[in-house]
């Protein structure tokens, strides 16, 4: 067994390619997570209620970001496989569709957040004070949504074509802008008015547009794939549109169903008490910091497997898929144990009540113990199946595991049986992840996920 594992990873070319992609992508996500950390730490100093209000208001943009992820995931199948055969025209028209697909939900969520913030907040709480403060935050933060769509689309294109440095630089500029403006506008420093939550939202919006300015501004001065004639971005024909939608729509539906299910969890948690949701908001900040390790690995997996399949090298795609799945599991267990060991000093950063801190400590413990199981479906569905062109299996797994099993159980335990919050959270984790992991691995080992979209890949599939 040890010899098999050793031979699986005894490939320097694999390590060079994987680390060259994974490390910058992980660094970019670390910067984006620190963006949230700065917000949470500074807003947490204002009290538990403002922290819960921002956490609930942030769920609106979280759902939107999940939709972005679905659009980007569908497009990245084409981008990575086209990159494998250097089909520049295919990459350019895919990016045009990606922009349209990302901007549509951004405009919709901006309109609702601006015109009906009370509706959004009442989805998660009945507390009038929390609703009022959340509305104040949401009506300013929603001006960042179009910027997020533009920056995420650009980052997806650049990552899929192995240009990973520019998104890191843009994210760094955005994070530094956010930290400085947060400090100035929340607390009234450098001559600025003390605006509290509203100031944090304005800082978020400005920082998001700084990210866009750096990404697209640099593209005008450098020869990246982001620099392309607009007419080529929208040179679609009916056959390409049908093919694109057949692959990308299931990924969008998959992320949308999962996001709505997770929003359902959050609505249950929000109605279980403000302190519980404040603890959950802090936990998610810690979770996002841990998740940067996994995002980099998953994106590297997606790009490399997409390239192999686009070029028709299916045997190498299968081998790399197994390597990434083993790596993800090992890394998840390691990070989970580190979180458990460091949870007390990490949570000491947040200026919240001891009750909220104690709840958060318990949630982090459960997450750290379960994370190895939770990330197996993540790497297989997002990193392997979608890169291979199979976007439908994720819809089936998430619909069954979230909507038919985990969400009804969470509602029963939280709203009917009134079990303690930590117990309800544990039941949610296990009821969703155990079944999903079993069937994801079963499908993975059957090698039915390879569906090329390039001519070269299709020829290889038809002539094995």
Structural class determined from secondary elements: mainly alpha
- Report the sheet-strand fraction: under 5%
Residue windows where pLDDT falls under 50 for at least 5 positions: none
What about the largest sheet?
none
The total beta strand count reads 0
Distance between the termini: 29 Å
What string, H for helix and E for strand, traces the elements in order? HHHHHHHHHHHHHHHHH
Percent helix, as a range, is over 70%
Radius of gyration: 22 Å
Oligomer: single chain
What does the average pLDDT come to?
87
Q: Give me the number of helical elements.
A: 17
Shape: globular
Subcellular location: Cell membrane
GO molecular function: antiporter activity; xenobiotic transmembrane transporter activity
Protein name: Probable multidrug resistance protein NorM
Transmembrane segments: 21-42, 62-83, 95-116, 136-154, 166-187, 199-219, 240-261, 281-305, 326-344, 364-385, 397-417
Description:
With about 475 residues, this protein is an all-alpha fold. Helices cover about 85% and strands about 0% of the residues. It has helices at about 1-10, 10-45, 50-85, 90-115, 115-120, 130-140, 145-160, 165-185, 195-220, 230-235, 240-270, 275-310, 315-345, 355-385, 390-415, 420-445, 455-460. Helix 3 (about 50-85) packs parallel to helix 7 (about 145-160), helix 3 packs antiparallel against helix 11 and helix 13 (about 315-345) packs antiparallel against helix 14 (about 355-385). The radius of gyration is 22 Å and the shape is globular. It starts with a helix and ends with a helix. This is Probable multidrug resistance protein NorM. One of its GO terms (biological process) is monoatomic ion transport. It is found in: Cell membrane.
């Amino acid at each position: 067994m040890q010899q098999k594992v050793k031979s699986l990873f005894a490939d320097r070319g694999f390590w060079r390619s994987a680390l060259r992609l994974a490390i910058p992508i992980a660094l970019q996500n670390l910067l984006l997570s620190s963006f949230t950390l700065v917000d949470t730490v500074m807003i947490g100093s204002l009290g538990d209620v403002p922290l819960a209000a921002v956490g609930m208001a942030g769920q609106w943009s979280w759902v939107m970001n999940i939709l972005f992820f679905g659009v980007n995931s569908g497009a990245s199948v084409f981008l990575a496989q086209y990159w494998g055969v250097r089909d520049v025209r295919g990459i350019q028209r895919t990016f045009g569709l990606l922009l349209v697909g990302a901007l549509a939900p951004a405009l919709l969520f901006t309109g609702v957040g601006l015109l009906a913030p009370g509706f959004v907040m009442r989805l998660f709480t009945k507390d009038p004070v929390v609703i009022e403060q959340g509305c104040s935050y949401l009506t300013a933060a929603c001006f960042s949504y179009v910027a997020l769509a533009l920056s995420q689309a650009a980052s997806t294109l650049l990552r899929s074509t192995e240009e990973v440095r520019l998104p890191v630089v843009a994210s760094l500029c955005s994070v530094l802008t956010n930290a400085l403006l947060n400090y100035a506008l929340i607390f009234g420093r450098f001559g600025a008015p003390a605006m509290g939550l509203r100031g944090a939202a304005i800082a978020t919006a400005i920082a998001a547009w700084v990210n866009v300015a750096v990404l697209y501004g640099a593209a005008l001065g450098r020869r990246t794939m982001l620099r392309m004639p607009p007419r080529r971005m929208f040179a679609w024909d009916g056959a390409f549109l049908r093919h694109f939608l057949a692959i990308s729509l299931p990924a969008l539906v998959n992320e949308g169903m999962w996001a709505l299910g997770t929003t359902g969890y959050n609505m249950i948690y929000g109605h279980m008490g403000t302190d519980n949701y404040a603890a959950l908001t802090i936990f998610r900040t810690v979770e996002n910091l841990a998740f940067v390790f996994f995002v980099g690995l998953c994106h590297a997996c997606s790009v490399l497997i997409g390239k192999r399949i686009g070029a028709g090298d299916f045997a190498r795609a299968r081998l790399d898929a197994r390597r990434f799945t083993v790596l993800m599991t090992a890394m998840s267990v390691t990070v989970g144990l580190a979180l458990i060991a460091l949870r007390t000093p990490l949570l000491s950063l947040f200026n919240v009540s001891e009750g909220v801190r104690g709840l958060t400590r318990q949630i982090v413990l459960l997450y750290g113990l379960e994370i190895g199981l939770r990330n197996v479906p993540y790497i297989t569905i997002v990193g392997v199946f979608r890169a291979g062109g199979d976007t439908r299996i994720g819809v089936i797994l998430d619909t069954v595991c979230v909507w038919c099993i985990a969400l009804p159980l969470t509602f029963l335990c939280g709203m009917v049986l009134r079990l303690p919050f930590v117990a309800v959270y544990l039941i949610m984790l296990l009821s969703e992840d155990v079944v999903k992991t079993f069937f994801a691995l079963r499908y993975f080992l059957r090698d039915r996920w390879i569906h090329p979209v390039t001519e070269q890949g299709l020829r290889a599939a038809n002539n094995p």
